[in-house]
Amino acid sequence: KLRASFGKAGNPPGSSYGYYNRYEVPGTYDGFSVITPRFGDGIGQKDLTWEETDEWNFGLDLEFLKGRFFFQTDLYKKEIKGLFYTLQMPETSGYNVYNTNAASVRNAGVELSLTANILPPSVKDWSWRVMVNAAFNQNMITELPFNNRTIVENARYLNVGHPINQFRMSKFLGVYPTDDDVPLNPYTGIRYLAEGGSPYKAGDAHFLDVDGNYKWVSYQDLTTVGDPNPRWVGGLNSSLRFKNWDLNIQCSFTLKRDVWNQSLARTLSMVNSPYGVDEEGRPFSNWGWGTHWAGTKDFVARRMMVNLDDLNFWQKPGDQADFPRYTVFNRTAANFIQNSSLFLEDGSYFKVNSIMLTYRFPDLKKLYINNLRLSLTAENVLVYTKSRISDPQNVSQQGYYTGNGYGLPRTFTFGLNLEF
Question: How far apart are CA 297 and CA 300, in angstroms?
């Protein structure tokens, strides 16, 4: 069966007063009421309008072997025009932000699902149904304000032709195995310089020189890196039955997604300062009680309980390492830059979310029992991932992993259902 559809939808602004500049009366002055703008609410946008969405969908349904196998696929394209977005204002304006129809975004992809009754009806006392679904999505910014001018926001770029929420950071290219691997400036004969003016050496991080001046500068040599939007997401469900026994397994997966491990970044950033850093990774300037020791215990408790033995640090000339040398003294360069792709990881994973085993007792009406069922359920069973993040599902939509909060625990639950 072939299917086709088109839909158009609208989304009104989140505030009914976004069109206007708002004011407040914070108090009085010399006996008269004072009226001031509400700067934090943003400047009014008299051209603010609805967010519009156009969506096209083409589908195909196929059935095989008298319904034992059912396949469904959908191709879609979703255009969002006038996407609501909060943009920063210059400080000289007095306002912090303004909320407007700032962008247009296109999402296009395919959704696939397969339902299979593995065993034929001729197999007595057994049944096995497997359901698999997967979705591929690719998004792209198609329009930005001010004639499609690139918007820079801290660690993100908004750029026409690129995915939304793409990272903006220093691009990590590896670790220099030896001094001879550090590039020479052909004009000066001096090796590639770190931000402080000292040349890079063996064991230091190699960051991309974006402007080609043979000196890495943290606020200049930034570029678009990675994509926090997963290309593939999906799930797998298996339901196996034998007489009065049922075994249900539920799984999920994500493929091709970049995540920023800020937890590890803040942990390793302490080696950029011999005096340590606070819980947000800011270096202390000396060993004074009011600076270094003020946040140490909290920082250690929240950031430092990690096993560094699993990390491949550079140790001697010739090492092919994943991370620069780990030492806090005699530094020539800040190697563990938080805002760098050194801490971008492959967020792909396959997770066994739950396994449930159930037994239904046969006819117990002689005991005035209509139904008796016992179950044992395991939750958050297994995760297979290349990432150093314990649970890749605990990542924000923007691809950030902060390490805050508690991960999902593995639980085992025994259940009894009794009906009279």
Answer: 5
From residue 69, give the alpha-carbon distance in Å to each of 134, 135, 187.
Answer: 16, 19, 68
- Cα separation, 221 vs 61, whole angstroms: 50
41-97: pLDDT as tens digits:
778 788 888 889 999 999 999 998 888 999 999 999 999 998 887 777 777 778 877
Q: 401 has which bridge partners?
A: 261
- What HEC string does the chain produce? CEEEEEEEEEECCCCCCCCCCCEEEEEEECCEEEEEECHHHCCCCCCCCCEEEEEEEEEEEEEECCCCEEEEEEEEEEEEEEEEEEEECCHHHCCCEEEEEEEEEEEEEEEEEEEEECCCCCCCCEEEEEEEEEEEEEEEEEECHHHHCCEEECCEEECCCCCCCEEEEECEEEECCCHHHCCECCCCCCECECCCCCECCCCCEEECCCCCCCECCCCCCCEEECCCCCCEEEEEEEEEEECCEEEEEEEEEEECCEEEEHHHHHHHHHHHCCCCECCCCCECCCCCCCCCCCCHHHHHHHHCCCCHHHCCECCCCCCCCCECCCCCCCCCCCCCCCCEHHHEEECCEEEEEEEEEEEECCCEHHHCECEEEEEEEEEEEEEEECCCCCCCCCCCCCCEECCCCCCCCCEEEEEEEEEC
CB contact burial 176-209 (16+ within 10 A = b; e otherwise): bbeeebbeeeeeeeebbbbbeeebbbbbbbbbbb
Closest alpha carbon to 384 in 346, 411, 352, 408: 352
* Residue with token string 């993040």: 389
Task: Produce one character per residue of 105-131: b if its CB has 16 or more CB atoms within 10 Å, e if not.
Answer: bbbebebebbbbbeeeeeeeeeeebee
Closest CA to 167 of 401, 404, 390, 405: 401
Q: Model-level pTM greater than 0.85?
A: no
Per residue in 213-260, pLDDT tens?
A: 999 888 889 998 999 999 999 999 999 999 999 999 999 999 999 999
Residue keyed to tokens 């309008």: 49
